[in-house]
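queue> pop job 88
queue> type: inverse folding (structure -> sequence)
queue> payload:
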């Protein structure tokens, strides 16, 4: 959830873009964020009572989820409120109109898979070479006239 919330704009042009869209269908919860440029979506397996959806403040939901104790979480929508219960903790958030939320772009098809450790190592190798102010030595820039 925190990952999806981090992608939200801190100053959205439309208030609903500060929200995370929660949708439940069958036994799957989708948590989606969208700022009209980039979208995020996380799918989780859940024990759902009925299908539905709600749009709530992404930052507030992320803050609440970080503070929850390690117990099962129950989420319910009652009118214009979403209630989160976990152990003795209980939170109520106002919802925003789901119908005002823009349609999410289609997710691209999977091009391939790689295990997380290999991916993290590859990113770390590249990131270590991309520090601000670092110059790339021995690069093949073509002819001197092509340098920009």
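queue> result:
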């Amino acid at each position: 959830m925190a990952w999806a919330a981090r992608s939200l704009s801190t100053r959205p042009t439309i208030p609903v873009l500060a929200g995370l869209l929660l949708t439940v269908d069958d036994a799957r919860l989708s948590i989606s964020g969208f700022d009209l440029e980039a979208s995020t979506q996380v799918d989780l397996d859940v024990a759902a009572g009925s299908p539905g959806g709600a749009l709530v403040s992404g930052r507030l939901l992320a803050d609440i989820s970080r503070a929850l104790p390690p117990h099962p979480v129950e989420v319910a929508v009652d009118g214009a409120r979403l209630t989160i219960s976990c152990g003795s903790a209980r939170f109520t958030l106002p919802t925003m109109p789901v119908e005002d939320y823009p349609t999410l772009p289609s997710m691209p098809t999977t091009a391939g898979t790689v295990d997380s450790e290999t991916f993290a190592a590859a990113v770390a190798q590249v990131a270590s070479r991309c520090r601000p102010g670092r110059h790339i030595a021995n690069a093949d820039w073509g002819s001197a006239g092509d340098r920009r």
